[in-house]
Amino acid sequence: MCIAVPAKIVEVDEDKNKAKVSVKGNLLVVDTSLVKPKAGDFVLVHAGVALEIVNPETAEEIKGIFDTLEELYKSEA
After folding, report:
1. How far apart are CA 18 and CA 61, in angstroms?
2. Residues 23-45: pLDDT tens digits?
3. Do 42 and 55 touch, CB atoms closer than 8 A?
4. pTM
5. Which of 48, 18, 13 is nearest to 33 (CA)?
6. Could you give the CA distance from residue 16 to residue 26 in angstroms, rounded to a whole number?
């Protein structure tokens, strides 16, 4: 099973098929060979690869699910 996290595109380097993304305030560089995003887009990222462009509502919904899971984990620890 793979889990992809939503990330917001901060900057795109089309020449290298790379983009800088923000995930929970952390900046990462991901491969964009599978998609053609622009700054401001949201993508699902797994293993350093942007797999799919998603709309902001979907990205927020997924973030909410992860936040809920994190809270449940903290309450059980």
Report:
1. 25
2. 999 999 999 999 999 999 999 99
3. yes
4. 0.90
5. 18
6. 21
Number of alpha carbons in the 13 Å side-chain half-sphere of residue 29: 5
Distance of alpha carbon 20 from alpha carbon 9, whole angstroms: 6
Q: What are phi and psi of 70, to 5 degrees?
A: -65, -45
Q: Per the structure block, which two tokens stand in for 74?
A: 């903290």
Rounded CA-CA distance 77/53 in Å is 34
pLDDT band at 76 (very low <50, low <70, confident <90, very high): confident
CA distance 58 to 43: 10
